[in-house]
Write the structure tokens for this entry.
Amino acid sequence: MYQFNGQHVIVTGGTRGIGAGIAEAFLKAGATVIATYSGNDEAANNFKEKHSLYGDKLVLKKFNVSNTTEVENFFKDYENQFPSLEILINNAGIRRDSIIPSMNESDWDAVIDTNLKGTYNMTRFAVLTMMKNRYGRIVNMSSVGGKLGLPGQANYAASKAGQIALSLSVSKEVAKRNITINNVCPGFIETELIADLPVEQVKEYKSQVPMRRFGKVEEVAHAVLFFASKESSYITGTTLDIAGGLNA
Ligand code: NAP
């Protein structure tokens, strides 16, 4: 539907799950995709292998989005390797669920650091790069959980609400430079992130979704490409639910 020929897209967490679906959609639409990941080499290699027909248009990079030094080094290398950066998708994310009395500090920190600080790190350096060309599209992978809150997800919900708040501020800072930043809020999407949910809980969650099913990665990718397109030039600081009617 959209064309991204000649454009460069960074998709964090782009080798598995929703991120892989997004990376695939951008490849099909003509972009050069830099798909990042943090540790799962096997999944990354499988992803690269599956898309070998795209050759140099798919590049993998391994680093931790929550580590500022690693992010800074990634962008230094990026600027030497690629002529420009048009699109950043802040998709990398984790869950460490438990109810608040038993949520330990390391689970709180890991989720906030990956989901929120990771978004801050990537956005900060990406904006510096995008400002040079006075053009950019940033899309954050938030969650309906950041607006509704689910029991056991205080850390996750706070991180996802934080991404929305971050983009509200940043959208106002960079609007004059032709850079937009928006959020998508998936509901339950079929990936490994929620594969550990007990069968009974899956049944319960599906019964709460008006469409009575979980979403597919392609359904999220479609909305991400919409926000990332040149045509979406007057849309910034907004949030779109992709949740089968489970809206906050
Ligand atoms: P997933 O299948 O678990 O994949 C997560 C990806 O993020 C992996 O590629 C992983 O890399 C990467 N990652 C994790 N920690 C990282 C770090 N510190 N630095 C760099 N990369 C890191 O998850 P998913 O379901 O596709 O979720 C993707 C995003 O959508 C997340 O932000 C999630 O919160 C959001 N979301 C998901 C759902 C859902 O129902 N699935 C719903 C709403 C929102 P490795 O492969 O190396 O581990």
User: Anything to note?
Assistant: The radius of gyration is 17 Å. The chain has a mean pLDDT of 97. Residues 12-13, 15-19, 36-40, 43, 64-66, 91-94, 114, 118, 141, 143, 186, 188-189, 191-194 surround NAP (CB under 6 Å).
